[in-house]
Structure formats: structure tokens, C-alpha cells
Amino acid sequence: MDAKEVVEKRKVWIKVHIAVDVETKELLGVKVTDERTADHEMLKPLLDGIELKGVLADSL
Q1: Mean pLDDT, 10 residues at a time, the chain of 60 residues
Q2: How many CA atoms, within 13 angstroms, populate the side-chain half-sphere of residue 8?
Q3: Which of 9, 12, 42, 52 lies 20 to 30 Å from 35, alpha-carbon distance?
Q4: What's the pLDDT at 35?
Q5: Which strand (E) or helix (H) includes residue 58?
Q6: DSSP, res 35
Q7: Global pTM value
Q8: DSSP per-residue string spanning 1-57
């Protein structure tokens, strides 16, 4: 096998974004993306259609 045939395999990660009701612990939404998607990009799609009083987030 010569150097041109060597293919470096890279681990590919997924990210799971979740919305949870803090009082009831009910799962309200889930979105799965690849590692290149920033957390703040998923906030609106994740919460679309959910009536909110407020939001707690670890990354905005």
C-alpha cells in the first residue's frame, strides 16, 4: 500500500439538543445534528411551537 492509498479515518460526532420542562421533567423537543452545528443555532428550531415562560440554556 503506498502513501496515496492511506486514508485517515476521522471520528464523526453527533450532537443531541434537548428541551426539558424544568418543573415536570417532561421532554419537550429533541434535535440531532452533526458536530459542526453550534448550540445557539438550534435554539429556535428546538423550541418552535413550544409555549414558554422563560428559557435556561447552557450555551447561547
Answers
A1: 70 92 93 94 92 81
A2: 2
A3: 52
A4: 94
A5: none
A6: T
A7: 0.71
A8: --GGG--------EEEEEEE-TTT--EEEEEEEETTS-GGGGHHHHHTT---S----
